[in-house]
Amino acid sequence: TTPPGVRGVLIGCGFFAENQLHAWQALPGVEIVAVCDRDPARLAQVRERFGIDEGHTDAGRLLASCRPDFVDIAAPTPAHAELVELAACAGADIICQKPFAGSPAAARALIETCRHHGVSLSIHENFRWQHAIRRVIDTLRQGAIGRPFFGRISYRSGFDVYRAQPYLARAERFIIEDLGIHLLDVARALFGEVDRLGCEITRVNPDIRGEDVATMMLHHDSEVTTLVDCSYATRLAEDPFPQSLIEIDGSHGSLRLAPDYRLTRHDAAGGQDTREVAPTPPAWSTAPWTPIQESVSAFQADWLDARRGGRPVETRGEDNYNTLALVEAAYRAAADHGTVTPERWP
Ligand code: NAD
Ligand code: 89V
Questions:
Q1: Distance, CA 148 to ligand 2 centroid (Å)?
Q2: Helix (H, G, I), strand (E, B) or coil at 105
């Protein structure tokens, strides 16, 4: 027998929400019964495109009318506090987009609110769910290269990211808070918590406000050292946007994830084996966004599976707090040209 469907609502019908709606509509066992955007024109467009009967411009009205099982918040960070509190008071489980809450302190308050109301809080942190990245995580966790001692997570592109997301050009904090946050989360998924972090940043593009290049060095409790480098100012004939490239050296071998989605394991005897780890494009996906769109489906499927199994998702609020703390530490390290010990949950 099919388990009863989970009823959700989505708040914030912007650029990225379309991926979330496509992915929900393709996932059996979930129904998005209503959507909300404070911009009536955008709300109407999305309702029509996705065939959703109920729509509201006010989140309070939406929740009172629908009494959903869960709320998917795809609105930007400044809206998180109000929306998470409303959803928690309505007794709905919550998924919220990154960067969550705006600061570790604000995140802590919202995590406590959700605990108080007995609802789950999951952060939509999807990069660790990208197919190629997940294969690297699995391979490492299976012990295929022994004990890791060095990692590099690299994202370098000249893609015009400002076209679909114009707010990125106006953000005072840009690449670390918007993109580096994903890479720092992947570093945690691979090597665990971080005890020291250094960072240098610069802005190359004169037409934006924040930094578009960041280079970070992390030292983990596990004794791994990781370089996390990201740039939206890198000119390459074959731009890998939006892929992250990964190198890991371990006691018994090395892993290399290349831009052509080839994952190579080098062993201690000088041998190597290479696998293709390209994502399977969802029917609704569009290049070059495929790896990210596919990771939205993977994240949501895991969220549903976790809900059914009564287990927490990897990127629950308390876990994501430690990723947010790395973002905060990176900006502090960049300002002081020093090394920072990041905060940690609890
Ligand atoms: P956007 O500006 O295109 O859309 C945001 C929408 O939210 C707008 O339509 C706006 O009217 C609506 N909104 C804002 N406050 C609201 C409120 N209080 N109630 C109802 N609606 C409200 O932004 P976007 O590019 O879709 O980004 C949204 C979020 O998704 C951001 O936090 C961004 O960082 C994140 N994002 C994540 C990924 C990823 O891969 N995980 C990719 C892109 C964007
Ligand atoms: O993931 C994000 O938040 C996006 C992008 C990958 C384009 O940087 O902004």
A1: 28
A2: helix
67-97 burial: b if 16+ Cβ within 10 Å, else e = ebbbbbbbbebebbbebbebbbebebbbbbb
The minimum-distance atom of ligand 2 relative to the CA of 164 is: 7
Please give the number of the atom of ligand 2 that sits closest to the Cα of 182: 1
**ipTM for this prediction:** 0.99
Give residue 1's pLDDT.
53
Answer yes or no: is the C-beta of 79 below 6 A from any ligand 1 atom: yes
**pLDDT the model gives residue 334:** 98
- E-strand spans in 126-211? 148-156, 194-202
Instruction: Write down the pLDDT at residue 310.
Output: 95
161 lines ligand 2 (CB under 6 A): yes
Domains of the chain: 6-97 (3.40.50.720), 129-286+315-340 (3.30.360.10)
320 lines ligand 1 (CB under 6 A): no
- Which residues of the chain fall below pLDDT 50? none
Mutate which of 15, 161, 185, 232 to test ligand 2's pocket (most atoms within 8 Å of Cβ)?
161
Report which DSSP code applies to 266. E
**Are the C-beta atoms of 317 and 123 separated by less than 8 Å?**
yes
Name the residue with the closest Cα to ligand 1, atom 2.
14
- Pocket of ligand 2 contains residue 179 by CB under 6 Å: yes
Question: For residue 166, what pLDDT is reported?
Answer: 98
The CA-atom distances, in angstroms, between 210 and each of 51, 173, 206, 331 are: 38, 5, 10, 11
* pLDDT the model gives residue 301: 98
Location of structure tokens 């997301």: 165
Q: Quick check: pTM over 0.90?
A: yes
Counting from 1 in the atom list of ligand 2, the atom nearest the Cα of 161 is 7
